[in-house]
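DATA SHEET
Item: assembly model
Revision: 1
Owner: S.N.
Input lines:
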Amino acid sequence: MSVGAGSVAPRGGWRRRRAEALAASGAAVGPGRLALRRMFRNRLSIAAVAVLGAIVLAVVLGPFVWTADPNAQHLNLAVAGPSSAHPLGTDTNGRDMLARVLAGGRVSISISLAAVLIAAGVGALIGLAAGFAGGLLDAVAMRAMDILLAFPSLLLALAVVAAAGAGVVSITLAVAIPNVAFFARIMRSMVISVRERDYVLAARASGVRRSRILLRHVVPNSLSPVIVAMALVFGLTLLDVAALGFLGFGIQPPQSEWGTLLNDAREYLLTSPVALIVPGLAIALTALAGNLVGDALNDAFDTGR
Amino acid sequence: MSAVAPATEAQPLLELREVHARFPSSAGVVRALDGVSLTVAHGETLGLVGESGCGKSTLGRVALGLTRASAGEVRLDGIELTALRGERLRQLRKRMQMVFQDPVSSLDPRMTVGQTIAEPLGELGVVARAARPARVRELLELVGLPAAFASRYPAQLSGGQAQRVAIARALGVEPELLVADEAVSAVDVSVGAQIVNLLDDLRRELGIAYLFVSHDLAVVEHVSDRLAVMYLGTIVEQGPAEQVFRSPQHPYTVALLSATPAPDPAQARRRERIILRGDVPSPVDPPSGCRFRTRCPIGPLAHPERTVCAERAPALAPTPAGQLAACHFAGELVAPVLGTAALEHG
Amino acid sequence: MAPLLDVRELAVDFDAPGGAVHAVRGVSFALAPGEILGIVGESGCGKSATARALLRLIDPPGRIVGGSVLFEGRDLLTVPAAELRAVRGGRIAMVFQDPAKSLNPVLTIGRQLAAAMRAHRRCTREQARARACELLADVGIADPQRRVDQYPHELSGGMRQRVMIAMALANEPALILADEPTTALDVTIQAQILDLLRRINQEQGTAIAFISHNLGVIAELCHRVAVLYAGRVVEMGSTEDVFRAPQHPYTRALLGSLPAPGAAARSRLTPVAGAPPVLTGAPRGCAFAPRCPRRIAVCDEQDPQLEPVRPAHLAECWVAQAEAAAPAAGGLAS
């Protein structure tokens, strides 16, 4: 059945003319930098990036600035309100909340970040191979991903921790593994779409080697959704890590992270809400900032593919 | 045979013999090319014209080895493409290149113009790394673009400029054959004219042969030495361009010419139009015998006694007028065509 | 006879970071009842924006910033929304370029036709269906009883465009606005659609405003033509006049870019060099001057106006106007 494609109305209109005029005035900007510029034009994006940046900076540099020992107990000061010595008060064992939140934050955020990077890296590689090669490799890889997706992520994480113990490495892997399938799918569908684009065919026709087509043309043009997903998954992973901690399967003492802080403070909700609220707020704020950054990236990449 | 083929070149640059191309699809097997044969001599321009679904784009890709033919032979200067794989086929790309319909999307949005043009030079080992920037500048000049364009990105180019970049990329390796797949269809009229002039200049300067694929008869006739008309995967008429245009032998060619609007209102009013009925049949299940019989103004629809059209597919055979046509009743349908009317008041 | 549609100094801007782009800069033309007017120009000339502005179909970042569109005694740019809705699809119908994108893929043809009808009059489902079959037959679709229950994907491109035209005819409009309706179709199918439009114009007296970049199609179908460049009408007259004796240098260049069928093979095409201007800021003088082979001093300083240079043939060009005023004296040398 003919789908009538006689001629195509020429692309043009005022948008293209403007882009040409801007280029003529000397501003040759690549799509990557253009996306960054777009992102920083939006006030909400700037705010989200600022908040996330501030949190990360706080947990990285914080312990050097606020040198109180998170594990030192001052039982006489248990459940005290904010004071100059303890700006966020103390918990039920008299430990300084601010120091605990900062130390815990380091652990939470670094585990989440590492997990996202691992999941994205492994997932993108699988997706790339499956999408580009197609055929049997694609089928096998995707069935494996399907199996992975069949498990609820938290249960899977719990299983990994139960099997491998509750060390930092095993927790990182536990929250990373369920997300691999997600990244694989995203990368694969982008690769399949990019593979069919005119410039890939043109590269083949020009005599470019397959390996170079993959690395130079397909991968860079497939990454935007993966980057967006990383920002979004960061927030989710943070929540997963906190959940593990809250359930008692997280980092073991003396190390602490936000989830375990929540767990510790559980029983004393009514008597000392501060110990519960502060880490809870930290988790929520960071996850939210991560999501907003993800949204901002999505909008920035969206126009002008 | 082409009237302009140099007598000394016995071997054509491009030769397709009984090429078939079949693709599986959800509706069945699509017979995109069904026994197509043609040749392009060195330095010649062969125009390939037809509507959507006729297989002309597939033909362009098969000619370049980008799509594998299911059967038949494809030869570039005697070298059998279908027998080559991988690296050896890739190296052959130095001799044959392609320019696509949508100029902006045929350029990687993340690479500058300079990088795009330089890429095949490096990949095919044609120009050493140190010499590439100079060659890129040379090529930009050749296609009429300022050297400063090398740092621009595709999104900052107009359709015409992008097409020039695509042509520059294709020319870098100094090919002998250039397949232009609807190269001027997606740009404005005046831009398209600039591109046509450019291709013409390049042909004269560099002696490149073109396989010019288009649905626009007027443009094709203007640039081509010889012309081949396609319908539903087969060539229905083939011969010197002016001759096919002036006295088309196949009823589909006549109808196509009749349907092509000419920018001449007086002629438009005077001309008798042949309007084909219905739509193009599906390439999954083409009509038996002559594929055009379901829409043909002189076939069984108009003359029920002409059963031969359904029984036997006509072969591409010489006609008294000179060119080849695949029709049992070639030359019967005549309509005032654009060429003659233009001469009348030219 | 009073014109059916009288557009005066229509202006449309598109807001963009870095200043507004003036896509339409004072376009004026009139359409008589039963006439087919072609609006031709290359991409970026403002023809699509003009077409949409007539029915106030401009969405942000675009805005209509001036002018009037007089239709049947009312200015469509200022009538209340309810009245405008009655006109859209009722007295003025639109046919767009790509039928695949304009038809709803999840509704049958019949339901979409019925919706077009029901928006403007009351009728029962049976009446709507009967009328839908009638309309499909009118536009040359065979076996309308079967087709009316089919979905858009079951139809070919040509048939879908016929369905769009049927929808446009559903309420017996006085004017059809066709924006590149045949551009996405094959040549032989295009011929069918043009034939159909011609027939509708002749039999039902429906006026058509036909927007296209294809000069051949315009020559085939239209009685009069308006040539657009950089948001203004640069030439307007009967199709015969404009094509045979183009007055504006841009029109001449456009016609010169077309390969003339039957002309000496490999003769050089004569397009105009360069590209159309970007329409930000306030341009001084004629927008075509930088590319014009006949440019003189005044062209860079003052904007020419659309004036008659021959009977019923207008051009917006200082040189053409000067030559028309004093042809015997040789006019201003180019």
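QC remark: The interface with chain A takes residues 14, 16-18, 21, 23, 42-44, 48, 97, 100, 156-158, 161, 180, 182-187, 189-190, 213-214, 275-280 of chain C (CB under 8 Å).
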